Amino acid sequence: MNEMDIDLRKYLQQNHNQLTWKKRINITYEITRALYWIHEEKAVHRDLHSGNILYLQLIDSWYISDLGFCGPADKSSTSIYGNLSYIAPEVIVGREYTFASDIYSIAILMWEISSGQTPFINYEHENDIVMNIINGIRPKIVPGTPLEYKNLMKQCWDADPLKRPDADALHIKMDKINLYYQNMSDELFKSEMDNLEMNKVEENYTSSSLFTSKIHTFGNLPEPRNATEEEQEAFHSKSYDFNIPNNSNNEKLSKEFKKLQIFSNDDDEVYNNPNFHSKEQDELEIPDGKLI
Q: How far is Cα 95 from Cα 239, in angstroms, rounded to an integer?
C-alpha cells in the first residue's frame, strides 16, 4: 500500500484558493464512491471527517481511511465517539451509528470542500455545537455553490435520517454532477477560474481539541429537528464573517446543468431503511486503517 501524501484538511488549507469547482466536485465524487463501497460491505464508518480522507498524489485519487473504526470498545452506552462537527444529530442524542449517519458526515465534508473551512470553526465550547446541530443549524452555504451540489448537500444533512439518500443514490447523483463538470465548456470553465482567482478565502484554521475524534458524553437532549430558513439566516448573520469565493456564472451553470435533468423532481424518494443497519454490519470485521 502506498503512503498517502496528505489528508483533506491539510489539502484544503494549502490549495483551496486554487481549486475550481471542477476539482472540488471531483473530490466529492471520489469520496462518495469510496463510501459506496464501504456500505456495500455492510459496514458503517462511524468517524468520517477531513482528517481521515486521504489523497494519493501519485495517481490523483482520494481514499477513506480508518475503515470500520468504532471507537473505544469500553465506552459507556451514554457516550459517543467521533469528531463532533461531523456527527449526525440522531447519534448525538443517543441513537446508533447507521448508514444514514455516515451520509450526514459526507454532507459536512461537502460543505468543507466547498468553503475551505473547518465546520463550526467559530465555536469554543462543544455544548454550543451540540445544541445548534440538534436544532438544525448547519454551516452557512457559501455563495457560488452550484444549485445541484447545494440541494444534494442539504438533503444529506437533513435532521431526519430517513430523508437522506443512501450511498448508492448519493454516488449516482455525484457521478452525474461530476460528469457534467468534467465536460464543461472551455468558456464556462475559464470564467469560473477567473472568478475564483479574484475571490480568495482568508485562511482561518484551528487545531482546537474540538476538532479531533474523542469520546463525548451528553445528558438528556431534545429530538433533532430542521431549522427554518429564517432561523438559519438569523444565526449566520451573527456567526460568520469571512470572505468566500463567489461565482458570478453560477446561475448560468445551473441553467445549463438543468438540461441534463439529473433530478426528475424536487421531492426525492425515501430510500430503503437508511436509518438502520443489519446484524451483519455489527459482525463484519474490517482491519483498522484499511483504505477504500
A: 29
